[in-house]
Fold this protein.
Amino acid sequence: MKNIIKYKSLLILSLVLFSCKLDLPNPNNPNDGQILTSREGMISLSIGMKQVYSTLALEALTVTPGTTSREVKGITTFTNIIELEAGGSALPTFNGNINTVWSRMLRVMGMAEDLITQAPSVLATDNPMRSGVVAHAQLFKAMALGGLATAFEQVPLQTDKNGQATFTTRQLALEEAINLLNQASATLGSTTPSTEFNTRVLGANFNLLNCINAYKARYNMMAGKYPEAITAANLVPSASASQFVYDGAQSINPVFTQLRIANNYGPRDNFGLPAGLFDPADGRLAFYLQGPVVTVGGEALRTIRGFAQANNSPIPVYLPDEMRLIKAEAIVRSSGILANAVIEINAVRQQSSGDPFGVHANLPAYTGLVTAPELLLEIYRQRCAELFLSGLRLEDSRRFSRPAPPTNVNPVPSTFERTRNFYPYPDQERLTNPNTPPDPAI
């Protein structure tokens, strides 16, 4: 895979978006060496990495797996969207959406790797700035690796400018993401980032340590490391609120772009879940969805609300209640005290106020059987509602052993809860990298 990051464009984008004045001979035409060898270049690349993830990468992680897990329906006549909506074994390797998920995650990874490699020497005399830049890059590389692992069976742990990256299992990719997050925690623990880093790179709405711990909890859960998932989740304050912020002009909310401006996708009613997996009284239905039901292709669609109400609506980096549901799931899967899992479930179900983002289920307490299978089903139900269109449904559908599509049916009937298990590897990768693994059957 080729690390084709356009440093000049990204740096100029960062300058426009964030008014970073570079102390360079020609700030309108910096070369790659200036970006990777100057203090201002490190700062601007950090800003650009976050911007690329919050717009391009987040869009790919939201709408593509969101279509496959049937949270949204592709409603335009673009071939790539029609193919994705159909899913099944005939999903072609040249599908544009699949390539977008792959290439945008690798783009973020490459940017993060350059920061991790270069910042220690470039910022050798500025420990507070170096700490922030490195930990921030470690977080975003972990996020990109985790994003790839939700969509593909095997992924590279490192980009390769010569297009010869090697692949490893998604389990090892998750473990590498966790390792990066542990390193990020240690980096912050050794040196507190500077006020300049917090102001210029993070902004007022992004708590780096909370985000690191939240993603550590998420990926430990996905990797089957249950005690570690609980430990990390307990470190995230329930009132914490880190967000990706958009100005509505030069940076636009990517979900709003796809579901409200381009109208390429429409959110399915009832979170796209079959009967029995959603509660009509759930307050999160009104939070995430609005307007009358419109029938398209025999399916009931609504208008997206939630975190895509306007072109400048912020999107949470994570939702605090995900931490409660991670703890509940980890307790059940590790044969812990089930009553403690019920406590965490009820903290999500019964919440009617206090969530920093206003996501309130406002449901009565759980009354089902207190057994591992029933509690896992309830946790899945709550995750589908709480984390609607967050890019996690496809991963959750597999982890909770929801019905998989058959390998011999295409297009997949609408009764299936997901139309693929994993995506095929894009042609762009296979044609240039002989290390690309065989495609999964479905």
Summary: The beta strands are 72-74, 154-155, 168-169, 243-244, 265-267, 289-296, 299-304, 315-316. The CA atoms of residues 368 and 374 lie 7 Å apart. Residues 7-418 form a domain with the Serine Threonine Protein Phosphatase 5, Tetratricopeptide repeat fold (CATH 1.25.40.390).
